[in-house]
Amino acid sequence: MSESDGNPGGWNDSDVAAAGAELASAAVQPVAFGQLGTGSLGDENKNLDLLLDVEIPIAVEVGRTEMTLEEVLKLVPGSVIALDKKSEEPVDLRVNGKLVARGEVVLVDDAYGLRITQIIDAAGRIESLR
Q1: Are the C-beta atoms of 105 and 130 separated by less than 8 Å?
Q2: How far apart are CA 21 and CA 80, in angstroms?
């Protein structure tokens, strides 16, 4: 049969009948799945224990600014750089470069610390990337 006869695939009735008979005689067997284990919370803790000693960079971002390379090269001890945040605004806590919390800077035994005041939810983290 040709394509001009309205049968672009070139199939005739006997080809279709033979294919149908072949499909009908194919043996179909149900799939047997193994039993699922109940699992235990102990296995999850064991997996988490593998990650407990992994180091992750954490940074507290007080503010940002943009400077040209020329301005950076002119910096000397005592230079003051204006940042985009006011002193009363919370600072950002970034883990692996991603915003996860905000807080306020505190002094703890002659060292700076961060008191976390807000944990950023997933929607807030996505918004901070924009």
Answers
A1: no
A2: 86
CB atoms within 10 A of CB 118: 11
Quote the domain boundaries for residue 81: 56-128
Number of domains in the chain: 1
Three-class SS string for the chain?
CCHHHCCCCCCCHHHHHHHHHHHHHCCCCCCCCCCCCCCCHHHHHHHHHCCCCCCCCEEEECCCCCCCHHHHHCCCCCCCCCCCCCCCCCEEEEECCEEEEEEEEEEECCEEEEEEEEECCHHHHHHHCC
- Determine, yes or no, domain membership for 4: no
Query: pTM to 2 decimals?
Result: 0.54
Give tens-digit pLDDT for 37-85.
665 555 666 777 888 888 999 999 999 999 999 999 999 999 999 999 8
CB atoms under 10 Å from CB of 92, counted, come to 20
